[in-house]
Amino acid sequence: MREIDLNASASGYVHALVLGAPKSGKTHFAASAPSPLFISDAAEGGYATISSMDPELWWDAKKPPTVWAIENAFQDLSPMLARLEKAKAEGNFPFKTIVIDPISIYADRVIAEMVLRNASDPKANNDKRAMYGDLANHLRVLLLRVHALPAHVLWLCHIKEGGVSLAGQTAEKLPAYMDFTWLCSNSPGLGYELHTAPYGAFSILGGRWSVRNASGKRYGLPSPIIPSFKSIAQVMKLDGVPSSVSMPGFPEGANYNWPPKET
Question: How many distinct structural domains can be found in the chain?
Fold first, then answer.
């Protein structure tokens, strides 16, 4: 049992579910986080976006993200997590952000590998409902292990019909494990945006962080906000914000005067 001290300061780590359609800027956003490790699906290939990015979009233009690719969910992921947990125990954790890229494709891979495994076992249970239950348990253990690491965690995920593109009850439960649920969009004429509050059909967007202005009114993050972790860090005043938060197209940085003053 762990007793929670409500007066203690927050850990400073962000655990966020980052939703978006393909090519909506999810990878661009995640690559702007400090010292990120991408745990990516080898077949999905979203990590290829990083190599074509302007390095100035990264947290540190001289330090590109690290990518570990998953080719087999059951064989590859556990050793990866064990390696990270060993680094944590030894006190030399090398990353400041863990990016699961994307959890929706990883979940599809898990189901596909279950089907293949069961096809060679005549005694296996091929009930899809049982598989979805096993998937939910698998993802829950993954969530707990990753969130125990000393780093920000960004879970990239595809969308469908205003919600999370995951099978079974996991789609409903996943946001509950997060501090934030955000949506990346790429609109003609507007470009990339990050929505941090309910937007369109996405009522699940938001987070537990807020700040009070001089009049006592509380505000969450600006929405939409420039889709860079530098913007998030600037507004939330997270430790380790770069001395310059400038971004291509925004030479003066985000310059968010937050929370807004009441007129």
Answer: 1
